[in-house]
Amino acid sequence: MLKTILSISGKPGLYKLVSRGKNMLVVESLADNKRVPAYAKDKVISLGDIAIYTDETEVPLHEVLTSVKNKEEGKTTSLVPSKATTDELRSYFAEVLPNFDRERVYPSDIKKLLAWYNILINAGITDFTPGDATGKEAE
């Protein structure tokens, strides 16, 4: 599911891939369902390709999002990412992923991850398992 959810540099929020054109992607905002083009010059990253650094290795984003979902019992986060202090963010994230690399995972990364989680939950996307074979699409 996360392979078709995209983050586009310079554009707020998350986007769902709708179709591919010759030199662009057509994406739909998860916040307001508006369709916009994403061109080759835009830095587009699939959430399925993101991982979080830990002390030993990297943990795929879907595992971290699932941990947040389990902690929050499927609801949006109780911690407001934009208003939280650095210590609050780090202690919250330590509950979700205890062995995250504190030197390479910045507070801004944690804020972004929690904001993405809230966007996904508000859009009705609660299945973070990798691959498109799950058959669960949020409409």
Quick overview of this protein structure:
27% of the residues lie in helices and 22% in strands. The chain is of the alpha+beta class and 139 residues long.
Q: Determine the N-to-C terminus distance.
A: 13 Å
User: Tell me about the biggest sheet?
Assistant: 5 strands, antiparallel
Total domain modules: 2
Text of the CATH class of the largest domain: Mainly Alpha
Overall number of strands: 7
How is the largest sheet built, in terms of strand order? 4-3-2-1-5
Number of helices, where a helix is a run of at least 4 consecutive DSSP H or I residues? 3
**Second CATH tier, the architecture of the largest domain:** Orthogonal Bundle
User: What is the string of helix and strand elements?
Assistant: EEEEEEEHHH
Q: Uncertain segments of ≥5 residues (pLDDT<50)?
A: 132-139
- Do you know the CATH topology of the largest domain? Arc Repressor Mutant, subunit A
β-strand amount: 15-25%
Q: Would you tell me the structural class of the helices and strands?
A: alpha+beta
How is the topology of this model organized?
Elements: E1 5-8, E2 15-20, E3 24-29, E4 35-39, E5 44-46, E6 51-53, E7 58-60, H1 61-71, H2 86-96, H3 107-122
Antiparallel strand pairs: 1-2, 1-5, 2-3, 3-4, 6-7
Can you offer a commentary on this structure?
The protein is of the alpha+beta class and 139 residues long. It folds into two domains: 2-47, SH3 type barrels; 50-122, Arc Repressor Mutant, subunit A (Orthogonal Bundle). 27% of the residues lie in helices and 22% in strands. It is built from three helices and seven strands. The strands form two sheets. Strands 4-3-2-1-5 form a five-stranded antiparallel beta sheet, with no helix packed on it. Strands 6-7 form a two-stranded antiparallel sheet. The longest helix has 16 residues, at 107-122.
